[in-house]
Amino acid sequence: MAESRALPEAYAGLPRPAVLCTLVKVVGSAPRAAGAKMWVAPESFSGSLGGGELERRAIEHARGLLSSPGAAAELKEYVLCKETGQCCGGRAQVFYEPMPAARTLTLFGAGHVGRAAAAVFSRMPFSVAVVDARPEWADKNGFPGDVAVRLQDPVEHARSRSWGANDAVCIFTHSHDLDFILAAHFLAQPLGYLGLIGSEHKADVFRARLKSRPGGEELLKSWDERMHCPMGIPLKSKDPKVIAVSVAAELLKEWGLGGDAA
């Protein structure tokens, strides 16, 4: 039997935020049968409810939901008559499901802890990616199928895109210098969660290094307010799997299960 997938996984490749529009019931004649779906984003759509005025109205209504923060799922009925520019003579019910902006977790470092963390976070209600520049570690075969593995310089990747509240970052690279560069970069980003593997001593060393940089006071303030280092809930173990579980517990509590995570 094929394994069922959660809705966000099934539509992972489509733009978000969006509204999933499903033709759930048809009485009489309609352009398409019940079950037809359309994915409506702010500037694009895919799929079809059959075209014509029904589809135009559905897209317009879906985009109205997108512009209303906190909009809930709803069922709407349409009469397919002269007034709607269609002469099918039937009735159609469309179910609208708002899908919030996609949430992402990026793990910088594909070493033992990064691999263990990827396994723990697999199939969570957000997408997971691992970034590492070492070909022998950034091997897709060593990770769950739903985890994206990027063979890329971590700093290059960090600087290649914008980051926001729907993004979480965990830093566990093989290099303290690389950890520091990434930490300094992400302290200036409005992430939903930022964690750095290491001890209290490592945190003190990094704070001292930050203080000596231009704008160091602001970076220190951001560190004190947002950085999780040591990362994870306190568990007395250095086993990568245990560390990964402790990190997952903290991240899920503070970000991963918040709001309408999907």
Describe it for me?
Helix 3 (112-121) crosses helix 8 and helix 6 (200-211) runs antiparallel to helix 7 (216-226). The chain folds into two domains: 15-99, no CATH class; 104-256, Rossmann fold. By secondary structure, the chain is an alpha/beta fold. The relative contact order is 0.11. The protein has helices at residues 7-10, 52-66, 112-121, 154-159, 176-186, 200-211, 216-226, 240-256; strands spanning 18-27, 37-40, 45-47, 74-79, 91-99, 104-108, 127-132, 147-151, 167-171, 193-196, 227-228.
Describe the structure concisely.
Helix content is 33%, strand content 23%. With 262 residues, the protein is of the alpha/beta class. α3 packs across α8 and α6 runs antiparallel to α7.
List segments where confidence is low: pLDDT < 50 over at least 5 consecutive residues. Answer: none
Q: Could you say how many structural domains there are in total?
A: 2
The dominant shape is elongated
- On the 0 to 100 scale, the average pLDDT is 89
The ordered string of helix (H) and strand (E) elements is: HEEEHEEEHEEHEHEHHEH
Structural class: alpha/beta
Q: What is the CATH H-level superfamily of the largest domain? A: NAD(P)-binding Rossmann-like Domain
Distance between the termini: 25 Å
| Strand residue content | 15-25%
Which descriptors apply to this entry?
262 residues; alpha/beta; Rossmann fold; 5-stranded antiparallel β-sheet
Layout of SSEs?
Layout: H1 7-10, E1 18-27, E2 37-40, E3 45-47, H2 52-66, E4 74-79, E5 91-99, E6 104-108, H3 112-121, E7 127-132, E8 147-151, H4 154-159, E9 167-171, H5 176-186, E10 193-196, H6 200-211, H7 216-226, E11 227-228, H8 240-256
Parallel strand pairs: 6-7, 6-9, 7-8, 9-10, 10-11
Antiparallel strand pairs: 1-2, 1-5, 2-3, 4-5
Helix pairs in contact: 3-8, 6-7
